[in-house]
Amino acid sequence: MAEGTGTGTGTDASAVTPAVSTATTTPITAEQLAAVKPVLQQQMLVDKAEASHAAAKLDQAADSGKLTLDVDAADALIKAVDTARDQVMDLWKRTSDQLATPLQLGENPVAKAISARFSELAVGEDSGAAKALLDLFKVLDDISNALSKNRDTIRAAEEEAEHGFQKAGGSQ
Q: Mind giving me the DSSP string for 47-84?
């Protein structure tokens, strides 16, 4: 009998056997962390600037009337952005205490220095992962507000047009 045909047992042998992963993780050293930190910080600042710029352009387009969505499309997009924003905040809430927990590497000066370095990367005021999550939350919130403003403008224009049509003797 051919393997995986299911003949006789009613099951596929490959569906029963769980996949086995051989992936391993390699600990990062303090020297590796120190070497990569400036690059990560710079990339985070670039990403934040690009996201903020995109949000500002979206807000400007909404203000000038260049952004046009129908109300249903705007509602769907706002819902998606709000969901992403809420997920970022949830992630921040779930991880910020964990990120701030000092590593328990020992009481010697090297262990304390490594723990402090990781803590700075995790929750540093200007460049930590927790700060990056809050920055992303703010960008998503700005995008949601711009989309909401645009949707409300469209809705008001549609209502005004409908009112003008009814006033002119049209029916609906």
A: HHHHHHHHHHHHHHHHHHT-----HHHHHHHHHHHHHH
pLDDT in tens, 115-129: 777 777 776 666 677
Please state the separation of Cα 45 from the chain's center in Å.
15
Chain-centre distance of CA 111, in angstroms? Answer: 33
Residue 145 burial (10 A CB sphere; 0-12, 13-18, 19+): middle
145: closest CA among 90, 47, 88, 78? 78
The Cα–Cα gap between 123 and 98 comes to 10
Are 130 and 99 in contact, with CB atoms under 8 Å apart?
yes
- CB under 8 Å to 83, separation ≥6 — which residues? none
Q: Tens digit of pLDDT for each residue in 10-61?
A: 444 444 444 555 556 566 666 776 677 677 777 777 777 777 777 777 777 7
Give pTM, 2 decimals: 0.53
Cα–Cα nearest to 88, from 96, 78, 99: 96
Q: Is residue 69 a contact partner of residue 150, using CB atoms and an 8 Å limit? A: yes
